[in-house]
Amino acid sequence: MTPDKCSQIEALLGREVLGLSDAERLRLEQHIEHCPGCLADLTLARLVRETIQSASHALTENARTRAIDMAISGAGTLRMPTTTKRRTLFGLAAAASLTVAAAAALLLFAREPRPTPAARRLPAPVATPAEQPAHVEGWLESTGVEQRTFAHASVQLSPTTRVQFDAEQTTLILDHGQVSVRVDVSKGRPFHVRTHNFRVEVLGTQFTVTPKTVQVLHGHLQVFSLTGELLARDLSAGETFSFAAPGDVSAPDKNPASARLWLMRARGALSRGNTKSARGLIERAERAFPHRGELAEAATLRAEAALLERDPKSAVRLYLVVAAQYADLPAGENAAFAAARLAARTEPARERELLKRYLGRYPRGRFAAETRLRLAELGEL
Amino acid sequence: MSALVHSSHVQQKPESTRDSEGHPAALIDGCRRGERAALAQLFRVETPFLERVLFRIVGPSSDLEDLLQVTLEHAVRAFPAFRGEASARTWLTRIAVRTALHHIKHPAQKRRVSLSVIEGGRSPISNSRPQHEAEARSRLRLVYEHLAELDAKQRTAFVLFQVEGRPMDEVAALMDSNLSTTKSRVMWARRKLFARLGRDPRTRGWLTESAGEVP
Known about the structure:
A: eleven-stranded mixed β-sheet; flat; B: mainly alpha
């Protein structure tokens, strides 16, 4: 039999992952006995495969749930009609509306000074009757997820939600269920959602209401009691208002997840390489009553932002701050090791010191074995 | 609190047909209609597979959760147009592959230093012995360091074929490409990757260790 050429064997090497017949395996074995190049390729192919396959990819259950929840909530508010054609038309119409709205906003801002936040909360002029949509008679009950437009608000009704719309007052009355509302800011008119417990007033924002809670996704809004008493003055994105019980509606519930939400957005911005936006989001997280773990994460993200901006020296400095302030948290340990690894590139003389410092502080740490290996390579152990 | 906690499970019709992964047609129909409970139920089953594909293409990265979220968001928006010609898993995998491909092609990723070793909570290597774990982690880092130097499409095709063990025609379908282009991408990825690994002094130890085991 004529010995195979390396090019013929390459095809077999490629298919090895899917399994070879006995004859093909024999050809392969005969060839690599005399061909060190193909033997090395085969070895590397297997090693690469095994290395990647043996690595655990699993996210924590919390992370997985969060991703699913965020995806459904985030994408659900932007649900598209059912056919591609409709989606395209909708997209074109939306793009056109946005362009017109942007042009109008530009003209408006060019002529008038920007209103203060307080001014923006004042009720806007009442719309002319011609602009008002037809009044929705009676109660509307959804069976599945339904998308509706009430005046200048796009509303997604969750299954088994019961609502009624009062066109004169631009008020959506929620009996039970959940509504996700997106109010068109360009109209400059307020929109209200009323439940049995409270009334929400907004100018332009995106939020979700149940009979007892309001969660703000974008923008700001105010919550009033049914008697007109102000319950939440300025609820902003990421915050949740919860109606506790009749007579106990004194303060809005600052959602403990809001700092986490900002941090998640900051991570997203960093992954897109947008460090400026990430810094803004980190600042918002720091203002949203974060707990210590979230503060540590915020500080770590600052270090990552510096790294993205090709400023490894600042990144090392910031990691060391995290390592010092949060030494008892996983973020502190991560930062201590990250600083040492980065120092290998920026200040090689300091790498040993930082590796030893890590090992001294975390002798049984997650990176202890790796640190010892590196120190051995540097001739320190 | 998570909205999913409030979601009730989808009522499945007993007579409903199932796709090749065993998802009832009623569940898929619910997803098409944008029902949260149906979407959550499907995603709970499919996310481990999507995570695996994303991880293997992108490598150890703190962006994995974000990528999974982006994949699922695209899926929620595109579900009304899902015709059911492929199984839901294949369709979702295709979205995951596109998301991963976009991620590794994005210039911001090239500037980013791999911080695989500091990502939160758990080690990407499942072996329990610390010494072995550190070695495996450094091997993984090394492999992705060289994979990162390949063209994004070549790298993706290589991972799907060589690591995931998917047939070439399936890889082509997942990447919206034709068979010959995909074959060529895998071949060039192999050549370039092995040439790079072969030149890297850090891989010599591997080859020596594995010399007696091949084939």
